[in-house]
Structure of eRF1/Pelota-like N-terminal domain-containing protein:
Amino acid sequence: DGGRAAMQILHRDVSGKDGSGSVKLMVEQTDDLWHLYNLIVQGDSVRTTTERKVHKELASGATDSQRMKLNLTVTVDKLDFDAEAGELRLSGRNTEENPFVKLGAFHTLDLQLHRTIVVTKLQWDALALARLADAADAAKDADVAVLVLQPGVAHLCLITPSLTLTRAKVIVPIPRKGRRGDGGAQRAYDKFHEALLQAVLRHVDFSRVSALLVGSPGFGADDFLAYVWAQAAKRDDARALFAHRAKMVRCRASCGFRHAVREVLSDPETAAQLSSTRAAGEVAAFDAFLAMLGRNIDRAIYGYAHVRAACDHGALNTLLLSDSLFRAQSIAVRRQYVALVEDAQQAGAAVSLFSAMHPAGEQLAQLSGVAAVLRFPLADLLLAESAAERAGAADGSTASADLAAGAVDAAMAAGELSSDDDGEGPRVLPGAGILEGDMRFGSDVWAGSDAGPF
């Protein structure tokens, strides 16, 4: 099987004193663009090759325009990532003299695969360096493909180490009346199964995926796999699937919609195929948090203020964070989450950073993006600190207000909050939908903790 190409770090010049410096790299795949989206923040400088329409004045006095490739350096003001299209755009002002682009002129860079990029920061913090090392890890997890289906509806998703990408959505009307063997109903099912087969042939590269998990309620997955093997026996375009039969695994799912992908990732029957994947590791970590929340509510907390207080008292066993928190525009907010991670590690807690583009990351984002399982209960302490915060707010203290504003800033940057036009203020939105060593991007959630998972 072919390996996953890793981001290439061509040159690294980062100061050991203050963390300032630059890294020259080349992105090899869409996952690398996602890493860059999380690495690059407002105020960083980025240099790469880009195209721009340039106007030239001819000898006759007329002007001519043509598109030219230029090397530009911009100070980042805004970033936009499209996972499905595999595009990362950033815009900002040009900071270096150029014969064709004025100093200070705005320009939008489209960061593309197999192109050299130089990122310069005033400070490469521990999380940024950990993500950079993860992106350059050639031994990354293999992709996993997931197909969830029900009669007439199916979604085919690709689970990469950082992203959950919808590769195909299939909808075919299935008659509600009539038995399966009846002519009209059978033709509809055959049409549905053929559309699914074509989606698999077109979008699943078995040289890169470790498994294709097919989930459904009832016997829908069995019927589809039976159709696949029947067609592979008599058609040249599908015959190659026989070589990958062991990778096609039947599992359980409640429906054919995208949210059922999470059920497949947490199905015990698929544990062997998913044991090394980060998405499954995130699901397991979040399920452990929910289990503790249901069993002993005093040892499962969420929200920055409570998690920070628990960390200060050495109570953290497992810290769960959404990577969207580190895309806040406020430098102070980003630094407080970096400090939380570093302090948790020093206290021996396991830290798992969830991708906001994975199912479990979407759910964590709806719980403020930060949660923790504690080694021992802190209910009385947390209640006392909450009361103290309220008292401080009543006395005119700005500390609580600053913390709340910072949390809202991080959530707004992550797309977890939206300003509401009805005057009720921000509201929680559904998530859009990984650190190394003790900081991990997804799997081996409990590693590094002396206390074990609970």
